[in-house]
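Entry for the shared binder. Reason: the reviewer on the internal report wants the predicted structure included alongside the sequence.
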Amino acid sequence: MTHGDGEYRLSCVLRAHEDDVRRICVCGDSGIATSSRDKTVKFWVPDPTWIPPGGQFPEGGIMSGWMDTLVLLCDLARGDIMENMTRHQFQVTGLAIDDNGDIISLSIDRYNSPIFIHSLVL
């Protein structure tokens, strides 16, 4: 498909809804929200961290840190939030998974520990 001098192409497909998507909301730089006739709302973030397949995530998952202090773990197969970690007092600024499968989250917490290690069975 072309429009004017530019060319458009599909850059990715977001799959999670079980029915057609009826609304899309671009939420600034935070992500995109979609709502569907399947009566769910999904929030898509631009920079999630991949959780490799295994354990409670047989097809893999994603985790994302938020301005509202949350670390969310989402199942890719179902599109569901599997865990909601709330130990930080300020925004989450970094996430990683170490070789043991532990999630390491970093925040701008000043007086509390800015780094937490969350155990996860992968």
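Summary line for the report: The mean pLDDT is 75.
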